[in-house]
Structures are given as C-alpha cells and as structure tokens.
Amino acid sequence: MSGQAVQRMTPHLADTPVLETERLILRAPGAQDWPVFRAMMASDRSRFIRRGDPDEGQAWRAFGHLIGHWVLRGWGNFAITRKGDDTALGSVGPWCPAGWPEREIGWAIWSPEAEGRGYAHEAARAARGFAYDVLAWESAVSYIDPANARSIALAERLGATRDASAATPGDAPCLVYRHPSPDALADGGMEAYA
C-alpha cells in the first residue's frame, strides 16, 4: 500500500446492548478496559476468579475470553462504569462458556475503589433482568468459590439460594447459588432489574 494512507480502526463490538441503572452504565467490554482488568488480575483481588498466579499472557487470554464470549454467544459480561465516567469498575452479566453446566450470572469488581458501594448488586440485578427479559432465560445460577464471603452475601442479597444438587464447572471447590426464576421474582414483588 505504498503511497496510500492506511485507515486505522478501533475495533468494538457493534450492536451490543447498553443497560442503564440509577448510577451505572453496563456496556460491552472493550480494549480501553484492558489496563484496569490487567491490574486486577495481577493483584490479590482476582484470587476467586483465577487459579494460580496468572502472568500477563494468562490475564490477556482471560480478557479475550470476556470479549470473545460476546462474539460467540451474542451476549456476555458487561463492563460496569459509573454514569459520566467510562472507566471500567468491573464486569457482570450472563455467562456460559463451553463446558459450563448451566447459564450463570457472574460478577467481579475490578477496582478496589468500587468495593462496598452497592455497584455489584445494582449491576447484577440489571444483568439478571436482561438475561430473563431479553435472553428469555428461565433459570440462572452463580458459581462462587466457598471462601468468597462477599460474593456469597451478594448472591443471597439477590435472592439466590444454595443448590447443593447442582453440577459445578470443573473440579475446583465451588458453591452453586440458584437465582429466583423470573416468575418467582414477579410473584414475590422482586424486580429483576435494579
């Protein structure tokens, strides 16, 4: 292409939904989120979502997994941002990579400054509502490391209960929390969305 200008494009996931809650925007993950994700994966904050100590290559592949899930399934984890600030705070959303026994609502807060502010709860309710109302899921679980007390508390706050008979992904210790069905949420006066 000698003598011709090369057009540079910023890749992104086209036509992906954007969810809005009172304080948050949930959008598809993008390249701009890599630095925050990489920092989280290099810290102890990632201990419940990884096995071993990941190097940068492993973190890169995990981040590619987040983006690739959208491409392969047409849905996936959203990047969580505050309204008016596009810096990713974490991820949340419908999740079911190959080999997963059931469809999951997963979450991870990447930024330590975002902990304890209710963002994960607000985002998870919106993501569960999206899974039920848009993707027409009839059921959802959350797979949680038994030592992850904060995620267990969040699952319970979302109305999920332990399902000891449910299959788990892989052979690592894992608790399964089953979310109320869409009908149970409607009948119980609980809204799926935040």
Please characterize this protein's 3D structure.
The chain starts with 18 loop residues before the first strand and ends in a 7-residue tail after the last helix. The model has no long low-confidence stretch (mean pLDDT 87). It has five helices and eight strands, in the order E-E-H-H-E-E-E-H-E-H-E-E-H. The longest helix has 18 residues, at 56-73. By secondary structure, the chain is α+β, with helices and mostly antiparallel strands. Helix content is 29%, strand content 20%. Strand 4 and strand 5 form a beta hairpin. The strands form two sheets. Strands 1-2-3-4-5 form a five-stranded antiparallel sheet, with helices on one face. It has one domain (19-187): Gcn5-related N-acetyltransferase (GNAT) (Aminopeptidase, 3-Layer(aba) Sandwich), CATH 3.40.630.30.
Mean pLDDT over the full residue set: 87
Number of domains: 1
Task: From the alpha carbons, calculate the radius of gyration and give it in angstroms.
Answer: 17 Å
Taken from the alpha-carbon principal axes, the silhouette is globular
Any idea what the CATH architecture is?
Answer: 3-Layer(aba) Sandwich
Low-confidence stretches: none
Number of strands: 8
